[in-house]
Amino acid sequence: MKKMRLLLFSIAIISLFAAGCSNGTAAGGKSIEVLKRIGDRTQYGDFKVITDGEQVKKAEEIVNDLDWENAKVDMARPADYHFSFPNPEAKVALFELWVSPNKDKVELVIDAESKYIQLDKNKSAELFEILTGEQLSDQK
């Protein structure tokens, strides 16, 4: 009987240790943190954290497969959203996202690296939906 209790206790401790060491994200520890601009100011507030592995992977593929331009840009207004892929093992790039006036495309800037790109309509819609959960065409 003592051996059975010891075995159950050991299993319980190992289970708690294993659960405590996991970070709970489906993307193997990867996520996307999205901040949204507050009003017309240059302040941003927490908007969404995306932990769905498929969505994180797709968003990473989109931004990694882009043909970025090396350019220092000065936009007319602050970015609508900021997002990043936090990674404690690597330098984290902060992406700034603007929705075009026609609400059909997005523009991205990595200010620290002086990179800029305007995505085509399909990639814009796909990335915007991943980041916000909303349709790009539905924006006000």
Please give a structural write-up.
The chain has about 140 residues and is of the alpha+beta class. The chain has one domain: Immunoglobulin-like (Sandwich), CATH 2.60.40. The protein contains 3 helices and 7 strands. A 7-stranded antiparallel sheet has the order 2-1-4-5-6-7-3. Helix 2 runs antiparallel to helix 3. It is globular and about 35 Å long.
Keywords for this entry:
single chain, 140 residues, alpha+beta, Immunoglobulin-like, 7-stranded antiparallel beta sheet, globular, disordered N terminus
Radius of gyration, rounded?
20 Å
The low-pLDDT segments are 3-27
Beta-strand percentage? 15-25%
Number of strands: 7
The CATH topology comes to: Immunoglobulin-like
Overall number of structural domains = 1
Give the ordered list of helices and strands. HEEHEEEEEH
Largest sheet strand order: 2-1-4-5-6-7-3
- N/C terminus separation: 68 Å
Mean pLDDT: 83
CATH architecture: Sandwich
CATH class: Mainly Beta
SSE class: alpha+beta
> How many H/I helical runs?
3
Give the helix level as a range of percent: 25-40%
Biggest beta sheet summary: 7 strands, antiparallel
> Quick one: overall form?
globular
Summarize the structure.
The protein is α+β, with helices and mostly antiparallel strands and 140 residues long. It has one domain (25-138): Immunoglobulin-like.
